[in-house]
Amino acid sequence: MTVSVKQPTVWDVVFSLKTIAAAGLALYIAFLCDLPNPYWTITAVYIVAHPLSGALTSKAFYRLLGTAIGGMATVIIIPHLIPSPELTTLGLALWLGGCLFVSVLDRSPRAYVSMLAGYSVGIIGFMVVDAPETVFDYSASRVEEIGVGIISAALVGRLIFPRHAGPVLAERIDKWLKNSADLAIMYIKGKGKSEDALQRRQHLAIDAVDLRAFTTHVTYDSSTLPSTVNAMRVLQSRMVSLLPMVASCNDLINQRNKLIADQCGGKSNNTKLDELIGETSAWLQTHEPMKPEGIARIKALKQSVLDDIGRSKVWLDLVSRNLTLRLVDIMEIYSDCLHLRNDIVNGTQHKLRWHRFDFLGEVRSIHYDFGIAFLSAFSAILAIFITVTLWRMTEWTQGATAAMMTGIFSSLFATKDDPVPAIRGMLKQILLVLVIAFVLQFGLLPLVDGYLPLMLSLALVLIPAGVMMAIPSKFAMGMTMAVNLPNLLLLQSRLSGDFYNFININTAMILGIIVAAATASIVRSVGAEWSAFRLIRASWNDIIEVAERPTDTKAYNELLHRMLYRYGLIAPRYALIPIHSPVRQTDILKDVRVGLDTIELQHLKESQGPTNRQNLANVLEELAFYYRVKINSTDVPDGKELLEAIDTTLDWTLALPDSEDHQKISFALTGLRQNLFGDAEPYKAVLPPIFKGHDA
What we know:
single chain; Methane Monooxygenase Hydroxylase, Chain G, domain 1; about 75% helix; mainly alpha; elongated; about 700 residues
């Protein structure tokens, strides 16, 4: 079997040449200004480097801001704790841990600010613990060195062959829309349970989460794209709405087919709905916005199906009605996605068609895992304490370097379930870079005399490393080489051939990384299954919350985004979870639909008369209890009381005079019953007790 490896493109080489040019500019300025540790300028360039100018500017802004905050925090913390080096290191560790806590909570690119504000204190503060009177000068020097590198990278990236995000964004959107249409067609054909469909669904959720982060970078792009950010946010809203709708269609079609087989001898009872299903599948294959005549035909088919069903209380008809509305939802959402894609790429503006629960504001609510954030912060603080204790007990001259590296590596991989494999992998790469640095330091650099020969010598490693950084599969190795080589060499304006100092400093770096990994393995490492279940349980808690309190349109959008965001976080973990695990058997998209139907019922409850209002309250109360049992028990609850409450409320709602609210309630109740009790006996309407007028 041949493994396909992406070969470097011209743009990859251009990116590498631009980055080393920025590094050369930064190093030249550092030498010119006689900055004490000029190697930090090259490190800063490669840390913020990115092939897209918008993403580069975004990273540069966040790192510069985080570094400045870290420098100011160091200047504030150390003078107040001068009498005790132990208290000083405690203060620095607590600051780093607190910043890391905030960073782990915010999974957007903005989290970079908090992380940098934390470990910049480690970079600066530990070095001056025994010389607190130098804190201002040392902090200013580090901020200047890192700032020079960041600004050099940003200027070169934006001025020399800038690569804009537009084509990349359009390609990613097109790929997502095509894959979502293919998945929808599979679901409409009843193939949603296949392994292929499951993998497609997971990839779509992951890509939707990635596009959310990508939008943050686009706001810093120098092209016309920033003006389309609002359109991209609306597109993301439509994208996350599409996945649960498509999954719902699969369940409804399978349920309808089963009912037709059991009750109608396998012969469809609604040819108009069959025609609508066929029209939907055929149109999705075109990947083109629907033409006006197509829209008119779909509207006519929808109305014809609903008219045929009328006020029927038969479960097959209720399922068919929900399926009809879901199919139309899919077509409207997908059509909106296609129009928004064209608006983003071409700068046009189309009228959107899908406005169910529409909310025009930006939805910021995503998943916050306070437990993992606390563990990450605690692990970092504990690791720093261990390193500092070794440093103070041994009076090691490079103990501060070890503490600095412990803080950095405790931060870099804090969002991973188990940071240890990533830290261990990077440590192996750093050891390889250390060998390269040794050869350069004591073999090649003694022969170098002058700035240009120095840059040419560094280019032997940095140009290949830059090309690797532009290739996703090789990014980690390229980044490790480019970022760590200048630090391992301790580049100065004059060569230092001190072998003892080289070994001492680099041993401290390696030890600091080892302590970070060892501490994380004890305190922070968790399994993918454990993390996935926490995400699922958080979604169940959301359903309980919306079942117990009134909600509005914004709450609908927040729940939708938050639960789909969690699904995007769970999806990459599925491959690491045993196939028979309860986590693998949980369908979070079904929970998403339950949550949305719950919000609908909560929203409509107050418009009902006393009896039906109480019926809806009973449904919501039993639903909250049902999910509490799921959270607190490994057994699946039978939900008998919830099913009875749903059926009773359906009985009353279907007996009430026809109205838009009553239709919405029966739609949501049908959805709840189908999602939670799809294998139960079909609903059979029972005439409720006699009631007067609309009092029910």
